[in-house]
Amino acid sequence: MKEVGYFDYLIGSLTVIPWAIVIWKAYKPKKGWQEVIGILLALFFGWLSTDLILRLHPLLWPEADFTPKKKVSMLTQTAHLAFIQAGITEEAFKIFFILILSFVLGYDKKTKTFSPRVVLFGSFVAMGFSFVENTHYIAREPDEKKLDLFFARTIHSSNIHLLINLCFSLFLLKSNAKIESANKRTYIAFGFVLAVLQHGVVDFLLIPGATIGLWVATSLFVGIWVWVVNDWRELVREKNENSKEETNDLAVANTD
C-alpha cells in the first residue's frame, strides 16, 4: 500500500473543512467547554473509528474480495460491500462513539433528555471519520487523479457521512419526547437501523460507478438535507435561541 504523505492529509482535511464551517455557523455554539471538548473528542473518535476499521477489516472480511470457490454475482458483491462492510461496520463504530460523547457531555440525567449539542458530536465524529478515510483513498490515487477524487470525496463521501450521523443525532433529540426508557431505547435503535440503511443504499448506488446511480444518490442527498434542515430548525436552532433568551432573562434578573 502506498504510504500516506503530508500532502494527502492536507487534501483529506480540505474535504471536510467546508462541512465543518457549515455546522459551526449553523449551530452558533456558546463556546462552552462541553462544546469545545466534545468537538475535539469527536474528531479523535472519528479518526479512531476509521483506524480501527482499517485494522480489523482483514480479520472481519478475510474473503471480502470474493475470490470464490463458487461464482458470486456482481449484485451480491455490491450489496455486501454497501450494506455489510460499509453500512453496518462503519455506522456501528461511529454511532458507538457518538453515543459515548452524547451520554457523557450532552445528557441530563435529571430530565433524561439530550442537549442540542449532540448534533455537534455526531457531525464531527463523521468528519473525523471522513478525513481519515478520504486521505487514505486520495493517497492511493496517482497525482493526476487526486483533484478529481478530492471533489468526489468532498461532495459525496464527506456529505453522506455527515448527513447520516446528523440524522442519528437528531433521533437522539427526538427521543427526548419519549417518556418511557424502553421507548427511548427503541427510538435510538431505529435511528441506528436507519443510518445503516441510508449508508447502504447510497453506497449501493455509487459503488458500480454508473451515471444513473450517481444522480439517484445525489437526489437522495438532497432529500436527506431537506429533512435534516427542517429538524435542525425545530430541534436545535429554536432550542438554542430559547436557551439564550432564558440566560439573558436570568442575567437581567440577577442585575435587578
Q: Could you explain the architecture of this structure?
A:
The protein is mostly helical and 256 residues long. 79% of the residues lie in helices and 2% in strands. It contains 8 helices and 2 strands, in the order ααααββαααα. It has a two-stranded antiparallel sheet with strand order 1-2. Strand 1 and strand 2 (113-114) form a beta hairpin. Helix 1 packs across helix 5 (118-140), helix 2 runs antiparallel to helix 5 (118-140) and helix 3 crosses helix 5. The chain is globular, with a radius of gyration of 20 Å.
Spatial separation of the terminal alpha carbons: 67 Å
Q: Strand order, biggest sheet?
A: 1-2
Low-confidence stretches: 64-68, 246-254
Averaging pLDDT over every residue, what do you get?
86
Strand content: under 5%
- Number of helical stretches of at least 4 residues: 8
- For the CA atoms, what is the radius of gyration? 20 Å
Biggest sheet, in brief? 2 strands, antiparallel
Assembly type of the chains comes to: single chain
Quantity of strands, as a count: 2
User: What is the helix fraction of residues, given as a range?
Assistant: over 70%
| Secondary structural class | mainly alpha
Order of helices and strands: HHHHEEHHHH
Overall geometric form: globular
